[in-house]
């Protein structure tokens, strides 16, 4: 009799064999047993964006590519002459345009730095943004978390400070230069990168390129380090449905990936895909491709966070390393 009851229970749970189908029925997905509506459950999913999903093989994560290529573009943003880093570590990449503009609409002067570059050997165009610079800018960012968000076309909302910071740099010279580079190299893929605040700006920039029709999403590789939450659930949902190649790399206890804190049902939400290195990120260290977008998974399982981990990626303090020219 007990076996029969158990069979009926399993049969009932099997009516929704996918997490998304399960949530569409108004039930929760139990990660612990990979079943719909199972209770009691240690770990449940109630948001569709947290349904387990990984990038397809054609857009797989590659530690070597990140470590030896994309990481250089992140580091270069911390040098006012990014070419020094490229000359040292990736000499085929050539800087095309740098911008250093005041990106604070309301508060005291705070500068944002970004650049474009191109590589005729790798057939790549790079668009990269520096992270937060100084206490004044950090204070303005934090205050903006309480000011609300700005509509991003018809796809949710993003934080106003990040959006403004992108537009100031975009209109300060990056737009015209990127259009010129695309005219010269129409078939090149685009690496859009950034760390910290620069990661949030990079996310918005990649999205803007698609929304305005300058590039299609399949031409873009978006990679961020220590990216704070950038927009709401609707923005994250549009992002995930749009970009086949998008990775948010998080080092161990990096505090920035968890600010501002998630509030309300849909107010703040990370887009996919988090790659979590729960170690010192030196060569050969393992990483976790996080199947959920944003919840109590992967790096969010940490009980404490670290500011030091925010500047240490791939085994070095890359902010100082980049400032020194990537020696």
Automatic annotation (TrEMBL):
Ranges of residues in domain Fungal lipase-type: 127-262
UniProt KW Iron keyword: no
Gene3D superfamilies: alpha/beta hydrolase
GO biological process terms on file: lipid metabolic process
Assigned keywords, A-Z: Signal
Highest taxon, organism lineage: Eukaryota
Signal sequence range: 1-16
Protein name: Fungal lipase-type domain-containing protein
Organism expressing this protein natively: Caenorhabditis brenneri (Nematode worm)
